[in-house]
Write a structure and sequence with these properties.
Elements (H helix, E strand, L loop, with lengths): L1 E5 L3 H13 L4 E5 L3 H11 L2 E3 L2 H8 L3 E4 L6 H10 L3 E4 L8 H11 L3 E3 L7 H11 L6 E7 L23 H17 L2 E9 L11 E8 L4 E7 L6 E7 L4 E4 L6 E5 L4 E4 L19 H14 L10 H16 L1
Parallel strand pairs: 1-2, 1-4, 2-3, 4-5, 5-6, 7-10
Antiparallel strand pairs: 7-11, 8-9, 9-10, 11-12, 12-13, 13-14
Helix pairs in contact: 4-5, 6-7, 7-9
Length: about 325
């Protein structure tokens, strides 16, 4: 098979590296308008690159494209690929531009449309979802997710990548990462209450701190604190009712379940091997990114059950995020 990787920034590099390390028979082609990024990819991975997507498609006749550009451009790029009969894997979109047309074209042409939702592939999250769904009664949860925005990409200014744009801002991205698994675990969202403000001096035209109360249709309730102000990168979750109490601090090593007999928390191990990249903070692991790639490859090879988070699902999530930001 032959894949295009469109957008050769940090996520494009990650997808290329993981595919090359694990799928020796797949040919990769890089595409980016930035000539310096193309040159870097040639040097790092010895890949052929193009500065034009149309030229790459016409010359290479790829089986699929990984869309790893800034989210604000995803819609048009996905449409272009689908219209030229190319299966699509896309990173999270953050905005629903062209969603109706994208969904329709993929169905008419019978093309595979795969949307990244990396946390649904984390073993810790799978454990939490399973335990909640297989337990009786209603649940409450508290969840704080935050990291100081300049630390996201320490090798470049936060003003130079998509989180500086109000439409694809940093808090919005965190919500788009977390809400799919939250909905999967606790149910569709019925009501939302929000308090938001700015607690940093960063040069932003959007809020950097959100305190969100979520009421789910099945009676579960939770508080979600999303910020780009926390100087320590943090994911801190508590899920509880009278039959279950789970804690998670964002890493594979910090998943705990309360033992009611011993009156203490016990570590839950959900991984045989943990893969990390030292460029990123400790709570980001590579396992889930590779699992997404493997699932997509199986999907385009005929496994129809490998669509954990569809565009239809994401449409609902984006509407919730729009509501939160507009409140």
């Amino acid at each position: 098979m032959k894949f295009l990787v469109v957008g050769l920034g940090s996520m494009g590099k990650r997808r290329i590296r993981l595919i090359k390390e694990n799928y020796k028979d797949i040919i990769l082609i890089g595409v980016d308008l930035n000539s310096s990024r193309c040159a870097e990819i040639k040097e790092l991975f010895n890949l052929k690159t193009y500065s034009s997507l149309d030229e790459a498609i016409n010359e290479e006749n790829p089986d699929a494209a990984f869309i790893c550009t800034s989210p604000i451009y995803h819609g048009k790029i996905i449409l272009n690929c689908l219209k030229k009969n190319i299966n699509v894997f896309t990173e999270i979109n953050l905005i629903a531009d062209n969603y109706d047309e994208i969904i329709d074209i993929a169905k008419v042409k019978n093309l595979k449309l795969f949307l990244s939702s990396t946390f649904l592939y984390r073993n810790e999250i799978k454990y939490i979802i399973e335990k909640v769904q297989n337990s009786k009664g209603k649940f409450a949860y508290t969840y704080h997710v935050g990291q100081y925005l300049p630390d996201w990409h320490p090798w470049e200014s936060y003003e130079n990548f998509f989180v500086s744009d109000k439409r694809t801002n940093g808090c919005r991205e965190l919500m788009a990462i977390e809400l799919p698994w939250i909905v999967k675990a606790f149910g569709n969202i019925k009501n939302v209450q929000v308090i938001k403000n700015n607690i940093t001096n960063l040069k932003l035209d959007y809020f950097d701190n959100y305190m969100i109360i979520l009421e789910h249709e099945n009676g579960n309730v939770g508080s979600l604190n999303v910020d780009i102000a926390s100087r320590k990168a943090i994911r801190s979750l508590e899920v509880y009712n009278e039959e279950l109490h789970i804690r998670w601090e964002g890493t594979p090593e910090t998943l705990y379940a309360y033992n009611f007999d011993n009156k203490d928390f016990e570590t839950i191990n959900t991984y045989e091997l943990i893969v990390r990249n030292n460029k990123y903070v400790n709570n980001i692991i590579e396992n889930a990114y590779l699992s997404e790639i493997s699932t997509f490859i199986s999907y385009i090879q005929g496994d129809e059950n490998n669509t954990i988070h569809t565009f239809e699902d994401d449409y609902k999530i984006i509407k919730v995020i729009d509501l939160i930001e507009g409140m």
